[in-house]
Amino acid sequence: MDVLRITGSQPLEGTITASGAKNACLPIFAATLLTGETCVIENAPDLSDVRFMGKLLEALGAEVERPAPNTWRITAKEIAHRAPYDLVRKMRASVCLLGPLVARMKQAEVSLPGGCVIGPRPIDLHLKGLSKLGCEVEVKNGYVFVDAKNAHGGHVFLGGRHGSTVTGTANLVMAAVMTPGITRIESAACEPEVVDLCKMLLSMGAKIDGVGSHALTIEGVERLGGTTFRVINDRIEAGSFLLAAAMTESNVRVEGAEAEHLAALLDKLEEAGLDYSIESADAIRVRGKPGSLKPVDIITLPHPGYPTDVQAQMCTLMSMTPGLSIITERIYPNRFMHVPELQRMGADIAIEGASAIIKGKSSPLSGAPVMASDLRASAALVLAGLAATGDTWVQRIYHLDRGYEKLDEKLRGLGAKVERLPDSEMPKDEDTAA
Questions:
Q1: Residues contributing to the annotated binding site for phosphoenolpyruvate
Q2: What are the beta bridge partners of residue 389?
Q3: Nearest of 122, 55, 128 to residue 95 by alpha carbon
Q4: Please, what CATH class does the domain formed by 2-19+233-432 belong to?
Q5: Which residues are named in the active-site annotation (predicted)?
Q6: What is the DSSP code (8-state) at residue 158?
Q7: Does the pLDDT of residue 381 top 80, yes or no?
Q8: Per the annotation, where are the binding residues?
Q9: Which member of 25, 39, 96, 116 is catalytic?
Q10: 218 and which of 27, 55, 183, 233 could share a cystine (Cβ 3.0–4.6 Å)?
Q11: Is 135 a catalytic residue?
């Protein structure tokens, strides 16, 4: 198993580019099952989750090719309607196969997805939505069974206790585009990744009104055609790069960073006193200056609110910004697994319910061996290592490889000292003992 060794306190300089968005790519891959014609997906990030989704489509009967880097050609002429547990259990996003299988096959058997260390993410709203479309839904023996032979348009409200459901919206949109009649989805998620899926479906011949809003109206069509579609760049990766430049007090240009998708983050960075400029429609420059930042309070919310996927990274920045900051997590209340690891590096953070109380320091964090618990915690620890003194060893970086394409290579391109090494290279306890 690999680890990252990061030698911190190195100035960063240059340009870094965000890859395609994993959270847009996975449902877009699932949407290729809606047609027997060929779909070409461009700007797909080379990530373990994306590669696994390709294998899952193959297991369902699709022909999957990779004609060029970051490009996939998928033809789903004949497919099965059953996605078994031994495949779905490996990646929660596999549940977004439910919608396209219901739409095209008029039946689906999909294993229930597993949980996650950041907290439970049930699919009750997905199933409620399918029931509102006239589907017969049954959950037994760990599977969701859906009979959609009598499916029809309907009115669906997708609001939940933590706001709109992103994958639930994706599933219901994909189910509705080939279901007879008019479907109206209220309290739909309007994240850029959902918008991207809708744009892809429109290019295939779907009829969707209200894209980008919380109210979607979908008129079912008999068939969809193939398409060539380019996935949006990853706003979370771009945001992570902006924060890396801020906490290392560096001058960095981040490409693939669309200000429209990052409005809530940029608002908080401006409030914190960060010097940045929007240089083009998809490029932002950060000019970090010593001692220029001040603490901020943040509450994570569904889009267009502050994104939960950049909470851990902001927590890292605030731990090295003098003053008191409070970050409240409204999407996944358990999403503070990174805090004990940041404390190992010297951060002063206390958890009170769904909030992190951060007493930022003017002194830098200290490098230490740390353990990643999930994807975004991994990124937060890497960023902490970039700004810390000494060496930071980040373990379990397979989490990182799920959502950040060649992150270590990209950071080295800015001058960071980041090495990917086998875990046998980690110093033993006696090597690091005081």
A1: 22-23
A2: 366
A3: 122
A4: alpha beta
A5: 116
A6: -
A7: yes
A8: 22-23, 92, 121-125, 309, 331
A9: 116
A10: 183
A11: no
The pLDDT tens digits for 346-374 are: 999 999 999 999 999 999 999 999 999 99
CA–CA separation, 70 and 25 (whole Å): 11
Asked whether the beta carbons of 253 and 279 are under 8 A apart, the reply is: yes
pLDDT number for residue 4: 97
Q: Would you kindly state where each structural domain of the chain is located, as residue ranges?
A: 2-19+233-432, 22-230
Bridge partners for 219 per DSSP: 182, 207
The superfamily in CATH containing domain 22-230 is: Enolpyruvate transferase domain (3.65.10.10)
Round to whole Å and give the CA distance between 345 and 126: 40
Instruction: Name the 3-class secondary structure at 136.
Output: strand
**Distance between CA atoms of 173 and 187, rounded to whole angstroms?**
13
| Token pair of 373 as six digits | 């618990």
- What is the number of other CB atoms lying within 10 angstroms of the CB of residue 150? 11
The reply to whether 22-230 shares the fold of 2-19+233-432 is yes
Q: Which residues make Cβ contacts (< 8 Å) with residue 299, sequence separation at least 6?
A: 305, 306, 327, 328, 330
Q: What is the pLDDT of residues 288-304, one digit of tens each?
A: 999 999 999 999 999 99
Pairwise CA distance, residues 134 & 175, whole Å? 11
Cis omega (within 30 of 0) for bond into 422: no
* Annotated binding-site members for UDP-N-acetyl-alpha-D-glucosamine: 92, 121-125, 309, 331
Nearest to 170 by CA among 155, 154, 185, 151: 185
Predicted confidence (pLDDT) at residue 199 exceeds the cutoff of 60:
yes
What pLDDT does residue 119 have?
45
Mean pLDDT of all residues in the chain?
Answer: 94
3-state secondary structure of 334: coil
| pLDDT over threshold 80, residue 92 | no
CB 272 within 8 A of CB 293: yes
- Other Cβ atoms closer than 10 A to 401: 19
The pair of structure tokens assigned to 14 is 């240059």
DSSP 151: -
Task: Compute the distance between CA of residue 192 and CA of residue 83 in angstroms, rounded to an integer.
Answer: 27
How far apart (Å, rounded) are the C-alpha atoms in residues 8 and 392?
A: 7
pLDDT in tens, 244-263: 999 999 999 999 999 999 99
d(CA 91, CA 87): 8
For helices 375-387 and 311-319, give the axis angle rounded to 10 degrees: 20
Token digits for 65? 């090719």
DSSP for 191-258 reads: -HHHHHHHHHHHHTT-EEESTTSSEEEEE--S----EEEEPPB-HHHHHHHHHHHHHTT-EEEEES--
Helices (H), 43-165: 48-59, 85-88, 98-105, 124-132
